[in-house]
Amino acid sequence: MHVACTQENLLQGLSLVSHIAGKNSNLPILSHVLLKTDGGGLKLSATNLEMAVSAQVRGKIEATGEFTVPVKLLQDYITLLPSGKVELVVQDDVLEIVSDGKKTTIKGMPSSEFPLLPKLVGDGGYKIEAEVLREAIDQVAFAVSSSESRPELGGVACYFNVFGPGALVMAATDSYRLTERIVKLAAGNPTGELRCIVPAKAMQEAARILSIYKDEVATPEEVVWTMNESQLVMNYGSVELISRLIEGSFPDYRQIIPTETATTAVVARRELAKAIRAAALFARQGIFDVHLEVLADGRLKIASSDSGTGTHSDAIQASVDGGENAVTVNFKYMMDGLSALRGNEVVIKLIDAMNPVLLQEKDGEDYRYIVMPIRQ
């Protein structure tokens, strides 16, 4: 194999695929990147057996072939090279790197040792605006459960055209809080209903790729998702992410979303976040409780108390519809929700101290965040 490319393109390709490769004492090959001449350039691939990422790097092929080398070592070295031409040449069991008059060799392993990357057989794909998908993942994936006792909660549930035509609904929950984001699909997408649960790590990797991928010719505007019963493939420009899907059924989460509320308060998002951070300093360790109370004078009171540290109370201005109300919640969950919301104002909907709290954006209903109360 003999390929010439630029340092900038090679480094970006390595940054796209290297994140999922890691040390594995039983399978050292999983810490390697597969270098393979493909079409008009070099294809880089890495896998952890749960998912795989491939990226195409533009280059000039002098001789075809394929080889694997430790991805972190290769990436660290390429980072130190100056901008410009880099040549990669495989000789026997080593990769020779020539750049700026310097020559370096890295020992590798034959490509036959590298796991086979599955090829998805499915019909068509859903096109989703890249920036919208990245934002939706950021707003949902953080609420995925880390417990292994309920694997179906370890991913993001995706519903295509299930809750309405032309809409993708993404949801995640860890049983203590719930997030839901609705994404409108462009015309021309498949109209059939489809449900799947995408592992949290795959979702986070997709968001990372969407954040760092740049193309000097034309950065793509859409992501193409193709799925079957057990596998997802995401294509974004020259990058491909393949992931297994989680088996099982996601719970009917919409039954816990409040449909009626007793009190609605609209407050400044940043002001509320600041007040909760202050109250968090006096919350009980291990319980992380703060008390929210809608006062008769139209303010929202945020308070906390701990026998070991002291007490804290603050009240911020609010636009209130309904009577007085109060609820105790986990401040960490509240802060996660406020960080995911956009806009300057947030809508808080309360029923009573025993029912979930609903947070929404004032100027949009495409995102909902629900926090379960701490029952006193």
From TrEMBL:
CDD domains: beta_clamp. Residues 254-375 form the DNA polymerase III beta sliding clamp C-terminal domain. Residues 128-252 form the DNA polymerase III beta sliding clamp central domain. Keywords: Cytoplasm, DNA replication, DNA-binding, DNA-directed DNA polymerase, Nucleotidyltransferase, Transferase. Residues 1-118 form the DNA polymerase III beta sliding clamp N-terminal domain. Transmembrane segments: none annotated. It is found in: Cytoplasm. GO terms for molecular function: 3'-5' exonuclease activity; DNA binding; DNA-directed DNA polymerase activity. The keyword 4Fe-4S does not apply. Belongs to the beta sliding clamp family. PANTHER family: BETA SLIDING CLAMP, DNA POLYMERASE III SUBUNIT BETA. This is Beta sliding clamp. It comes from Candidatus Uhrbacteria bacterium CG22_combo_CG10-13_8_21_14_all_47_17. The gene is dnaN.
